[in-house]
Protein backbone atom coordinates (compact mmCIF):
# COMPACT_ATOMS: atom_id res chain seq x y z
CA UNK A 1 0.00 0.00 0.00
CA UNK A 2 2.89 2.36 0.82
CA UNK A 3 4.39 1.80 -2.64
CA UNK A 4 0.99 2.34 -4.25
CA UNK A 5 0.51 5.67 -2.42
CA UNK A 6 3.94 6.84 -3.56
CA UNK A 7 3.09 5.81 -7.10
CA UNK A 8 -0.15 7.77 -7.12
CA UNK A 9 1.54 10.80 -5.60
CA UNK A 10 4.32 10.71 -8.19
CA UNK A 11 1.75 10.32 -10.95
CA UNK A 12 -0.17 13.42 -9.99
CA UNK A 13 0.69 16.58 -11.88
CA UNK A 14 1.20 19.84 -9.99
CA UNK A 15 -1.84 21.47 -11.66
CA UNK A 16 -5.20 20.11 -12.71
CA UNK A 17 -6.11 23.05 -14.95
CA UNK A 18 -4.57 26.02 -16.74
CA UNK A 19 -6.91 29.00 -17.02
CA UNK A 20 -5.99 31.42 -19.82
CA UNK A 21 -7.21 34.92 -20.47
CA UNK A 22 -7.51 35.62 -24.21
CA UNK A 23 -6.94 39.22 -25.32
CA UNK A 24 -3.39 40.55 -24.92
CA UNK A 25 -2.46 37.24 -23.31
CA UNK A 26 -2.53 34.65 -26.10
CA UNK A 27 -1.50 37.34 -28.56
CA UNK A 28 0.51 40.55 -27.94
CA UNK A 29 -0.79 44.04 -27.27
CA UNK A 30 1.10 45.15 -30.38
CA UNK A 31 -1.54 43.46 -32.56
CA UNK A 32 -3.63 46.63 -32.28
CA UNK A 33 -6.78 44.74 -31.28
CA UNK A 34 -6.99 46.42 -27.87
CA UNK A 35 -6.53 49.91 -29.30
CA UNK A 36 -9.20 49.31 -31.94
CA UNK A 37 -11.55 47.88 -29.31
CA UNK A 38 -11.08 50.96 -27.14
CA UNK A 39 -11.94 53.24 -30.06
CA UNK A 40 -15.03 51.20 -30.89
CA UNK A 41 -16.24 51.45 -27.29
CA UNK A 42 -15.90 55.22 -27.39
CA UNK A 43 -17.73 55.35 -30.73
CA UNK A 44 -20.55 53.22 -29.30
CA UNK A 45 -20.91 55.55 -26.33
CA UNK A 46 -21.22 58.55 -28.63
CA UNK A 47 -23.22 57.08 -31.52
CA UNK A 48 -25.52 54.66 -29.69
CA UNK A 49 -25.85 56.10 -26.20
CA UNK A 50 -25.66 59.80 -27.05
CA UNK A 51 -22.90 60.61 -24.59
CA UNK A 52 -21.08 63.88 -25.19
CA UNK A 53 -17.74 63.24 -26.84
CA UNK A 54 -15.99 65.62 -24.45
CA UNK A 55 -16.94 63.37 -21.51
CA UNK A 56 -15.96 60.04 -23.06
CA UNK A 57 -12.38 59.78 -21.82
CA UNK A 58 -13.11 60.75 -18.21
CA UNK A 59 -16.28 58.65 -18.10
CA UNK A 60 -14.64 55.62 -19.68
CA UNK A 61 -11.72 55.73 -17.24
CA UNK A 62 -14.04 55.88 -14.23
CA UNK A 63 -16.26 53.07 -15.50
CA UNK A 64 -13.32 50.80 -16.28
CA UNK A 65 -11.52 51.43 -13.00
CA UNK A 66 -14.63 50.98 -10.84
CA UNK A 67 -16.48 48.21 -12.65
CA UNK A 68 -13.87 46.14 -14.46
CA UNK A 69 -15.20 46.86 -17.95
CA UNK A 70 -16.76 49.92 -19.55
CA UNK A 71 -19.78 47.82 -20.47
CA UNK A 72 -20.40 46.78 -16.87
CA UNK A 73 -20.05 50.39 -15.76
CA UNK A 74 -22.46 51.73 -18.38
CA UNK A 75 -25.13 49.28 -17.23
CA UNK A 76 -24.46 50.17 -13.59
CA UNK A 77 -25.03 53.90 -14.02
CA UNK A 78 -28.27 53.37 -15.91
CA UNK A 79 -27.67 52.93 -19.64
CA UNK A 80 -29.93 50.28 -21.17
CA UNK A 81 -28.69 48.52 -24.30
CA UNK A 82 -28.64 45.15 -25.94
CA UNK A 83 -25.60 43.11 -24.96
CA UNK A 84 -25.32 41.38 -28.32
CA UNK A 85 -25.60 44.70 -30.17
CA UNK A 86 -22.85 46.15 -27.98
CA UNK A 87 -20.52 43.23 -28.61
CA UNK A 88 -21.29 43.28 -32.32
CA UNK A 89 -20.46 46.99 -32.54
CA UNK A 90 -17.34 46.85 -30.38
CA UNK A 91 -15.88 43.58 -31.69
CA UNK A 92 -17.45 43.32 -35.12
CA UNK A 93 -15.16 45.96 -36.63
CA UNK A 94 -11.89 44.81 -35.10
CA UNK A 95 -8.86 44.21 -37.36
CA UNK A 96 -8.84 40.43 -36.85
CA UNK A 97 -6.59 40.19 -39.90
CA UNK A 98 -3.80 41.41 -37.62
CA UNK A 99 -3.89 38.05 -35.86
CA UNK A 100 -1.87 35.33 -37.59
CA UNK A 101 -1.60 31.59 -36.97
CA UNK A 102 0.82 30.94 -34.13
CA UNK A 103 2.30 27.44 -34.64
CA UNK A 104 4.81 27.94 -31.81
CA UNK A 105 2.11 28.63 -29.24
CA UNK A 106 -0.05 25.89 -30.69
CA UNK A 107 2.74 23.35 -30.19
CA UNK A 108 3.33 24.51 -26.62
CA UNK A 109 -0.36 24.23 -25.75
CA UNK A 110 -0.88 20.90 -27.47
CA UNK A 111 2.05 19.32 -25.63
CA UNK A 112 0.85 20.47 -22.21
CA UNK A 113 -0.66 17.40 -20.46
CA UNK A 114 -3.09 19.51 -18.41
CA UNK A 115 -6.66 20.74 -18.92
CA UNK A 116 -6.72 24.15 -20.59
CA UNK A 117 -9.68 26.56 -20.46
CA UNK A 118 -10.19 30.09 -21.84
CA UNK A 119 -11.53 32.65 -19.34
CA UNK A 120 -12.39 36.00 -20.95
CA UNK A 121 -14.71 38.95 -20.35
CA UNK A 122 -15.37 39.09 -24.09
CA UNK A 123 -18.29 37.44 -25.85
CA UNK A 124 -18.12 33.98 -27.39
CA UNK A 125 -18.11 35.18 -31.01
CA UNK A 126 -15.03 37.31 -30.39
CA UNK A 127 -13.26 34.51 -28.53
CA UNK A 128 -13.87 32.01 -31.32
CA UNK A 129 -12.71 34.46 -34.00
CA UNK A 130 -9.46 35.15 -32.15
CA UNK A 131 -8.74 31.48 -31.49
CA UNK A 132 -9.48 30.61 -35.11
CA UNK A 133 -7.19 33.34 -36.45
CA UNK A 134 -4.43 32.16 -34.12
CA UNK A 135 -4.95 28.52 -35.10
CA UNK A 136 -5.70 27.58 -31.49
CA UNK A 137 -9.39 26.68 -31.73
CA UNK A 138 -8.83 23.04 -30.73
CA UNK A 139 -6.24 23.66 -28.00
CA UNK A 140 -8.74 24.30 -25.22
CA UNK A 141 -11.36 22.21 -23.49
CA UNK A 142 -13.82 25.08 -23.30
CA UNK A 143 -14.49 28.81 -23.23
CA UNK A 144 -15.79 30.71 -20.22
CA UNK A 145 -16.89 34.06 -21.59
CA UNK A 146 -19.41 36.87 -21.14
CA UNK A 147 -22.38 34.64 -21.92
CA UNK A 148 -21.16 31.93 -19.57
CA UNK A 149 -20.84 34.34 -16.66
CA UNK A 150 -24.02 36.24 -17.54
CA UNK A 151 -26.46 33.62 -18.85
CA UNK A 152 -29.72 35.14 -20.02
CA UNK A 153 -31.71 31.99 -19.37
CA UNK A 154 -31.07 31.69 -15.63
CA UNK A 155 -30.03 33.94 -12.78
CA UNK A 156 -27.47 31.62 -11.21
CA UNK A 157 -25.20 28.82 -12.29
CA UNK A 158 -26.89 25.51 -11.51
CA UNK A 159 -25.21 22.88 -9.38
CA UNK A 160 -25.14 20.48 -12.31
CA UNK A 161 -23.51 22.95 -14.72
CA UNK A 162 -21.27 20.79 -16.89
CA UNK A 163 -21.02 22.71 -20.15
CA UNK A 164 -18.04 25.02 -20.04
CA UNK A 165 -18.67 26.52 -23.46
CA UNK A 166 -21.82 28.61 -23.64
CA UNK A 167 -24.16 27.23 -26.31
CA UNK A 168 -27.17 29.53 -26.21
CA UNK A 169 -30.32 30.37 -24.30
CA UNK A 170 -33.90 31.48 -24.54
CA UNK A 171 -35.41 34.59 -23.01
CA UNK A 172 -37.69 34.53 -19.99
CA UNK A 173 -39.91 37.05 -18.22
CA UNK A 174 -37.02 39.12 -16.87
CA UNK A 175 -34.87 39.16 -19.99
CA UNK A 176 -35.35 40.71 -23.40
CA UNK A 177 -33.07 40.97 -26.39
CA UNK A 178 -30.11 39.53 -24.55
CA UNK A 179 -30.09 41.84 -21.54
CA UNK A 180 -31.96 42.42 -18.33
CA UNK A 181 -34.93 44.70 -18.76
CA UNK A 182 -34.22 48.09 -17.26
CA UNK A 183 -36.81 50.36 -15.71
CA UNK A 184 -37.28 52.69 -18.66
CA UNK A 185 -39.76 54.82 -16.70
CA UNK A 186 -36.74 56.29 -14.88
CA UNK A 187 -34.08 57.01 -17.51
CA UNK A 188 -31.97 59.12 -15.13
CA UNK A 189 -28.28 58.34 -15.47
CA UNK A 190 -26.07 58.32 -12.40
CA UNK A 191 -23.48 61.12 -12.69
CA UNK A 192 -20.35 59.17 -11.85
CA UNK A 193 -18.06 62.02 -12.95
CA UNK A 194 -19.80 64.41 -10.59
CA UNK A 195 -19.83 61.76 -7.88
CA UNK A 196 -16.03 61.58 -7.84
CA UNK A 197 -15.58 65.32 -8.37
CA UNK A 198 -17.63 66.13 -5.26
CA UNK A 199 -18.09 62.93 -3.23
CA UNK A 200 -21.06 62.65 -0.90
CA UNK A 201 -20.34 59.97 1.73
CA UNK A 202 -23.98 58.91 1.98
CA UNK A 203 -24.20 58.10 -1.76
CA UNK A 204 -22.69 54.82 -2.95
CA UNK A 205 -21.83 53.77 -6.48
CA UNK A 206 -24.66 51.79 -8.10
CA UNK A 207 -24.03 48.10 -8.57
CA UNK A 208 -23.72 46.51 -12.00
CA UNK A 209 -25.83 43.53 -13.11
CA UNK A 210 -22.85 42.26 -15.11
CA UNK A 211 -20.41 39.72 -13.70
CA UNK A 212 -16.88 40.08 -15.06
CA UNK A 213 -13.23 40.05 -14.09
CA UNK A 214 -11.72 41.40 -11.86
CA UNK A 215 -14.68 40.61 -9.63
CA UNK A 216 -13.87 37.77 -7.26
CA UNK A 217 -17.44 36.55 -7.80
CA UNK A 218 -16.71 36.21 -11.53
CA UNK A 219 -13.56 34.21 -10.91
CA UNK A 220 -15.28 31.98 -8.35
CA UNK A 221 -18.12 31.35 -10.80
CA UNK A 222 -15.65 30.46 -13.54
CA UNK A 223 -13.93 27.98 -11.23
CA UNK A 224 -17.27 26.43 -10.36
CA UNK A 225 -18.27 26.10 -14.01
CA UNK A 226 -14.92 24.56 -14.92
CA UNK A 227 -15.12 22.37 -11.81
CA UNK A 228 -11.56 23.03 -10.70
CA UNK A 229 -9.75 23.46 -7.41
CA UNK A 230 -8.23 26.98 -7.26
CA UNK A 231 -5.19 25.68 -5.37
CA UNK A 232 -4.43 23.36 -8.28
CA UNK A 233 -5.14 25.88 -11.03
CA UNK A 234 -2.69 28.23 -12.75
CA UNK A 235 -4.26 31.46 -14.04
CA UNK A 236 -2.67 33.40 -16.94
CA UNK A 237 -3.75 37.03 -17.47
CA UNK A 238 -2.28 40.31 -18.70
CA UNK A 239 -4.19 42.44 -16.16
CA UNK A 240 -2.62 43.13 -12.76
CA UNK A 241 -6.10 43.63 -11.29
CA UNK A 242 -7.28 40.26 -12.55
CA UNK A 243 -4.13 38.58 -11.25
CA UNK A 244 -4.60 40.08 -7.78
CA UNK A 245 -8.27 39.06 -7.74
CA UNK A 246 -7.24 35.55 -8.75
CA UNK A 247 -4.84 35.40 -5.82
CA UNK A 248 -7.65 36.41 -3.48
CA UNK A 249 -9.63 33.28 -4.39
CA UNK A 250 -6.62 30.99 -4.06
CA UNK A 251 -5.33 30.76 -7.63
CA UNK A 252 -1.67 30.58 -8.54
CA UNK A 253 -1.10 33.24 -11.15
CA UNK A 254 1.05 34.22 -14.12
CA UNK A 255 1.21 37.84 -15.30
CA UNK A 256 1.66 37.88 -19.09
CA UNK A 257 3.20 40.80 -20.96
CA UNK A 258 5.42 41.97 -18.11
CA UNK A 259 9.04 41.06 -17.44
CA UNK A 260 8.75 41.57 -13.68
CA UNK A 261 6.41 40.01 -11.19
CA UNK A 262 4.04 42.37 -9.40
CA UNK A 263 2.56 41.96 -5.96
CA UNK A 264 0.38 38.87 -6.01
CA UNK A 265 1.69 37.24 -9.17
CA UNK A 266 3.60 33.99 -8.77
CA UNK A 267 5.22 34.22 -12.21
CA UNK A 268 5.66 36.79 -14.97
CA UNK A 269 6.12 36.21 -18.70
CA UNK A 270 7.16 38.84 -21.21
CA UNK A 271 5.29 36.75 -23.79
CA UNK A 272 3.14 33.64 -23.62
CA UNK A 273 5.83 32.05 -25.81
CA UNK A 274 8.11 32.06 -22.73
CA UNK A 275 5.86 29.64 -20.89
CA UNK A 276 8.12 26.60 -21.25
CA UNK A 277 11.22 28.55 -20.30
CA UNK A 278 9.56 30.04 -17.20
CA UNK A 279 7.47 27.02 -16.17
CA UNK A 280 9.37 23.90 -17.25
CA UNK A 281 7.70 21.92 -14.46
CA UNK A 282 4.50 21.85 -16.51
CA UNK A 283 6.30 19.54 -18.93
CA UNK A 284 8.74 17.95 -16.54
CA UNK A 285 5.87 16.61 -14.48
CA UNK A 286 4.83 14.52 -17.47
CA UNK A 287 8.33 13.01 -17.70
CA UNK A 288 8.45 12.33 -13.97
CA UNK A 289 5.09 10.62 -14.09
CA UNK A 290 6.31 8.26 -16.81
CA UNK A 291 9.41 7.40 -14.77
CA UNK A 292 7.22 6.82 -11.73
CA UNK A 293 4.78 4.75 -13.77
CA UNK A 294 7.35 1.98 -14.28
CA UNK A 295 8.53 1.93 -10.65
CA UNK A 296 4.99 2.13 -9.33
CA UNK A 297 3.76 -0.65 -11.56
CA UNK A 298 6.28 -3.07 -10.10
CA UNK A 299 5.37 -2.02 -6.56
CA UNK A 300 1.66 -2.59 -7.16
CA UNK A 301 2.25 -6.00 -8.66
CA UNK A 302 4.48 -6.97 -5.72
CA UNK A 303 1.81 -6.00 -3.21
CA UNK A 304 -0.80 -8.06 -5.05
CA UNK A 305 1.31 -11.21 -5.26
CA UNK A 306 2.56 -11.02 -1.68
TrEMBL record:
UniProt-listed InterPro entries: HAD-like_sf, HAD-SF_hydro_IA, HAD_sf, Pyr-5-nucltdase
Pfam families: Hydrolase (PF00702)
Official protein name in the record: Uncharacterized protein
Organism: Tripterygium wilfordii
